[in-house]
Amino acid sequence: MKRTTAWAAIAVLTVAVAGCGSGSDPGSEESGKTTITFWDNNGGTRTPIYQELIKRFETANPTIHVEYVGIPIASVQQKYDTAIAGGDTPDVGGVTTSYLANLVGQQALEPADDWLGKSAVNGKLAAPMLDSVRDTVPDGKLYLVPGTSNLDVVWYLKDKLPEAPKTWDEFFTDAHELTKAPDQYGYTIRGGAGSIFQVLAEMYAYSGVTEFFDASGKSTVNDPKNVEYLTKLAGLYKKDTPEADVTNDFPKMVAAFGTGKIAMMHHNLGSYNDQVKAHGADKIGAFALPTGLSGKRTIVANPVDGFAVFKGSEHKDAAWKFVEFLVSKESNSYWNQQTGQIPANTEAQGDSWVTALPHLKTAVDALNDPNTAVVSPPYYLPQFSSITKADTEPLFQKVLLGQMKPQEFLDTMAQKLTDAQAEWKKATGG
Amino acid sequence: MSTDVAIRPGRAHAPQNRSRRRPRPKRDRGRVLRLYVPLGLYLVFTLIPFYWMVVFAVRPSGSTTPVPWPITFEHFETVWNDIGYAVFFRNSVIVGVWSLLATTVLAVMGGYALSRFRFRGRSLFMVVLLCTQFIPGAMLLIPLFTIFKTLGLINNLGSLIVADTVFNLPLSVILMSGFISAVPFTVEEAAMVDGCTRLRAFLAVVLPQLRPGLIAVGSFAFIHTWNNFLFALMFVSRQDSFTIPVGLSYTIGEYSADFGALAAGGVVAAVPVVCVFAVVQRYLVTGISAGAVKG
């Protein structure tokens, strides 16, 4: 009897496990409805925005159901890599140019060129963003339909800084004059995770160098004017910035700025909602990185964020239809208005809410200024991510702590980038 | 040390002079310095992160006061309704409880075999069990994903239960074998001499004495499963099947960080675990120390 009870318990356990959470397979066709899966590459904060858009899409397309899955941004690359290796990719995925080359290298994505040529949004997506996407991959095809881009800005508290600096000299002067340590600091440096991209943006904005590699393939990261800027920036640390900056990743930096004790913080348009929540819309302002020594504005292009259709999708028509919907004027405008970023759809860029938000108007004006030079980072290099994160972030901390000279740091990074570029050219015959 | 007043032989015990104050033993002061001060400091060090978490969870966004006032529960509302913690919490409980049960049952079975039987390859088996602890879960992601896909367990909480149970088992089996070894075999033998089968003898005699060990193993299995983020994210691709650790990671976006929601989510994740440990702590300490004696 007891033996029977034991076996019965094991059987119940087995059945319960098998029944846990099982549901209908995504992508199945039930009663004429096609289900496609969409992975949001920044799940959580933007989930309500996509849920609203999906509701609108399904109302307009009753035969298509979109299954939304939010992937935390910190793990999205690993999630995609695992899915590709396991053969379980979604139909549509949110992708940025910072890891596009990795996905294309695994032959996971469907090129969008043919589709775009016949689409209603053809000619309505920002050309710089399309170029930026094509530049990221060796074959120059469009594997990612852009939905948004970003711009580095310096957020500042209006009650501490009534007028934004226009030049780098004014910026350093303001950072110094606004510091009354330990209660107030003029600036905060991102010294932890994600530091290198911000430093690159600042250096190139200061120096005015417009290419990442010169004609011979050597990296321009250690250009003398870049070194000059880095020396000035390192000089701010602990004098006009908090000592804790050396370990500042994005959350810590935003949290510190949210206390109201820091007058200026370099980040991008994407943290607009956070700034408004912490300080109030009327107390916060933003300015694009000041013009540099050349007198021209130089911008290091932020990763372009958009949508890709995966090769393994069994419902490509429905997938492309969804992508087209997401980058249409209404949807693209809605999405970017909610997030405070730059729409990829040029018709959406002309909407009134864009000009009504001062920081966004600043960004769009800067991007559309014919005098602005855009420097494209080499996202196509497989080693770019590791060079700008694991390899050099600790070295930047040493620079801040005075344990390494700026010249030595930039020489190291430049050499790594030069070697990676040479390797890439050899591999692709470029 | 006795503090009684010495009694002279042959004399009646004289009553104590209650007006005289007994001198305070010196060792009390030393005990305070040796024991309570370090414990207090360690407690402060441990509790500060929890205090930070609770403060951020109940104070309004943008507030910087160390004491949260006014108190708001908007962050809890955000995580429970907007982010979807109600679903994540349910999934975490399902996976945690099933993993606890499966790990405990299998650990008892495996631990009994290791403890009571001497078979060829026993030592090698134990070494292999220990060595599996050195393999990080991330290394096995793709092979496990492929296996679960073949079994149809992707997007199924069963994959998390199986994966977490498998990763909990090696240490649990070794721990449980130690607990079982602490129970003399003669007691079991006596039951078998009286007519019990081995299984009956185990259930009647040994199992009741394993309560601290069962609670220790079960608690560790539950905590490990509750906190597991990697498997929960990789083996599941449905919004309604994610668990709490995945939900917590939603609060830090690419360009925004909602610290209030993150802290509220942390409180929601921590409360069940703290309650469980509050109940089982005396068994846990007994279990860990008992298991450490014999292995």
From TrEMBL, chain A:
Alphabetized CDD domains for the sequence: PBP2_TMBP_like
Recorded hits in InterPro entries, A to Z, give: Bact_solute-bd_prot1, SBP
Signal peptide segment: 1-18
Keyword annotations for this protein? Cell membrane, Lipoprotein, Membrane, Palmitate, Signal
Which Pfam families would you find in this protein's record?
SBP_bac_1 (PF01547)
Q: Which PROSITE patterns match?
A: PROKAR_LIPOPROTEIN
Q: Which Gene3D superfamilies match?
A: Periplasmic binding protein-like II
What protein name is recorded for this chain?
Sugar-binding protein
Q: Which organism is it from?
A: Planotetraspora mira
TrEMBL record, chain B:
Q: Where is this region: Disordered?
A: 1-26
Signal peptide (UniProt feature, chain positions): none
> Got a GO cellular component term for this one?
plasma membrane
Pfam families per record = BPD_transp_1 (PF00528)
**What is the membrane topology here?**
Multi-pass membrane protein
Q: Which residues form the ABC transmembrane type-1 domain?
A: 89-280
Annotated transmembrane regions: 32-54, 93-112, 124-147, 167-187, 199-223, 259-280
Primary residence: membrane
Q: Say which domain of life the source belongs to.
A: Bacteria
- Cite the SUPFAM superfamilies for this sequence: MetI-like (SSF161098)
InterPro entries xrefs: BP-dep_ABC_trans_perm, MetI-like, MetI-like_sf
Question: Which UniProt keywords are given for this protein, alphabetically ordered?
Answer: Cell membrane, Membrane, Transmembrane, Transmembrane helix, Transport
Q: Where in the cell is it found?
A: Cell membrane
Give a yes or no for keyword Nucleotidyltransferase in this entry. Answer: no
- Tell me its family: Belongs to the binding-protein-dependent transport system permease family.
Q: What is this protein called?
A: Transporter
